[in-house]
Every structure is written in C-alpha cells, then in structure tokens.
Amino acid sequence: MFEHYTLKNGMEVILVPRAESPATTVMATVKVGSKYETKDISGLSHFLEHMAFKGTKQYPLPSDISTELDGLGAHYNAFTNEEWTAYYAKVRNDAFDKALNIIADMYLNPTVPAEELEKERGVIIEEINMYEDMPMWKVDELFSKVLYGDQPAGWSVAGRKEVVQRVQRDEFLAYRAKHYTSGNTIITVAGGYNPADVKEKIAAAFRGIMEAPDTPLPDVREKQSRPQEIVMFKESDQAHLVLGFRAFDAHDARHFPLMVLADLLGGGMSSRLFKHVRDELGLAYYIDAETHLFTNNGFVAARAGVAKDRVGDALRAIVAEFKELTERSVGEDELKKTRAHLIGGLFLSLETSDQLASFYTGQRVMNLAPLTPEDVAERIERVTAADIQAVARDLFTDDRLNLAALGPFKGESFGDILHIS
C-alpha cells in the first residue's frame, strides 16, 4: 500500500505507511545526477550533495546537522548516482517531525560556505582516490566507459579531479537553481509515522522550494557494430572482469524476463555462473550477474574476480553460459527456483523503511508508474522459459557485447573470445 500524488507546484510525494514499523524514513530526492552534467562540471551533482551537510539556514555550522540527527538516534546519509541525488534520515516514529524539517532545510537551504567548500575539495579527491584503489568499483566504471564512451553516461559519478579542484561557489548556486526545483523533486515518507496531517506537514516543510518544471534528461548515444573491450593495467593478484551487453531502458516490457535471466545466470550460489565458473572450474571467488536499467539506457552483465593467469578460461566459460541461454530453453524446475529466489530476495531487501523509500522513489525518478513489491512479484511469476530465451536472443549478440578487464595485463586483448554468434 502506498500513495503517490503531485502538488500544484509539480513536486511529487510518495507515502508508504507501515504501521508495524518502529522507524520512519524521510527522503528528499532531486532528479539530477552525473547524466545531467557536462564535462566542465563533471562531478558537481556529487559535490553539491556533500555540501548540504556543511551548513544550512537553520543549522549554520558544519557540525550542527550531524549533532541534531545523532541526538535523534537517526541513521542518515545522502547519495548520488547517474540520475538522482537523495538525502534521507531514518528515525524513531516520534522523531518524524524533526527529521522532516532537518531534511527539508538541507534540501532547500544549504549555504555552501566558501571555506567549507575549499576543505571538501580534499575530501572528495580522497574519495575518488579510494574508488580508484577499489578494483571491483573501478572495473564497473570501466564498463560504463566501454559502453558509452565520452558522454555523461560513461563518466564517473564521483566526477573528475580537475573539476573538483577548480569549481567555484557560483557554479554550485547556479546548478542548484537549475535543478533543485519543484518539478524535479520527490519527497518520500515510509514507515510507521503517524498519518495525521502528514500531507500538510510535508507541504509546509517544502513550501520554500523554487517552482519550475522538471529538467529533461539528456539522451544517451548508443552506437556499436562489433564487440568492444577496455583492458587496463593494475598491479594485483586477481583480475576483475565485467562482461555484458547493451540492453534497453527500464520502460521496456522485457524488463522482467531480463531480471529473471540475470538471476538465473548469477543470482546466488546455485546460479549457473557460480556453479560452473567457481564450483566446477575453480576460477573465481566472486561471480554474479545483474541488470542495470535506467530511464533511457540499460545493460546486463556478469562480474567476476578471477585468477590472473586464467582470464581467458573464465571469459570462455562466461560466454558459453550466455550462449547457452540463446540455444536451449530453461527447464521448469530451474525457472521455478529462480523466480522464487528473486521474489524472496526482493521482499527481504525491503524490510526497512529506508529500503522501501528507495524502492518507490527509484521508480518515479525513471517516470515509471510505481509498482508495489507484490506487483513486481506477480510480474516475475509470469515470466516463462520462452520469454527468457527470447530476450537472450534479442540481447546476446556480437554487436552488443562489451568487456572491461582490470588486472596485471600488459598489452593483452581478449577480442578472439568476444563472440557469441
């Protein structure tokens, strides 16, 4: 059960009451992320998210917000991805009013103090350095780069160091004025809050928002005619791989068959990739498969950390599993198990109010009609073996195939392996 409505100024509100929950999450989301940026401001969405914690109208000192929220026993944070930036606090139900006002102040009234901006440059540079030293993160970034190249969809969400080092306060303020508007904003409240007057409280807390329609999401350029690869050197004891295919966006009717397909391939310890590449061949410690579908682009991919001297063997094994799905229909027992695993994982992932808030918010960011978990489960149950084979045949082709590899490589290419047909 949820309620979704839009105020006269265009701001959306999602209410997800759960009377049994001891906690409530307040989440304020703006539909802006790295895909909205240009090269000269790459990383500004993420940087601006940081600055919301560095002083607001009601809480002028950098420590004020954390002191207030810690005093409520809150779990709080913010995050930025390709298409949205969210600020949230999860609190006991009786602290809802206070949390709502704090999140609203962070969202509407960050002061972006010049001295704090200078300090935060160093913090974000070190965050970027941290990600550069995390191969599982870095190889995902490389995969976006091989898919989309030099356009916003192919850039790091964290941004470019040179932008972080030089961007000025007036650019932050202009970016906020353009994007942090009523038409770009979604306020989500989920959990055990008292429903009395909640709509009035939300409207009052955000009454100062700048009124403007939503900002159009830039197009993603999709162009590929043959398999592509990026192989990057990094001294390590393990090679990290992402091997996958361009897909479709989140609005496509094949969304649910693709979800089931990915789970069947790499969704658990009984999945095909785990059993074959790890258990039978002993080539990997971690291996999985997942889909990432956005408003106007998407992909499906397998990820693995493999023995550095057996990368070719691992890639051949993964390619073989992709190809198998195009050639042979999935058996009913395996399909039933996969659907149950996917549905069970969905419900277990939504046990808390913050997870529920993200679940519903993410759908609206992509302009989808919101589905309940029960709706999603019903659609997963409808997926047939024929649906899975059809989407595999649609997507698993040479002109959609891409590889990102990170490890102790010196001039290697795996192009001879990158063939499905």
Automatic annotation (TrEMBL):
Xref: Pfam families: Peptidase_M16, Peptidase_M16_C
SUPFAM superfamilies for this protein: LuxS/MPP-like metallohydrolase
InterPro entries: Metalloenz_LuxS/M16, MPP/UQCRC_Complex, Pept_M16_N, Pept_M16_Zn_BS, Peptidase_M16_C
GO biological processes: proteolysis
Record domain Peptidase M16 C-terminal: where: 167-340
Signal peptide interval: none
Domain Peptidase M16 N-terminal, residue spans: 18-158
Molecular function terms from GO: metal ion binding; metalloendopeptidase activity
Membership in a protein family: Belongs to the peptidase M16 family.
Protein name as annotated: Peptidase M16
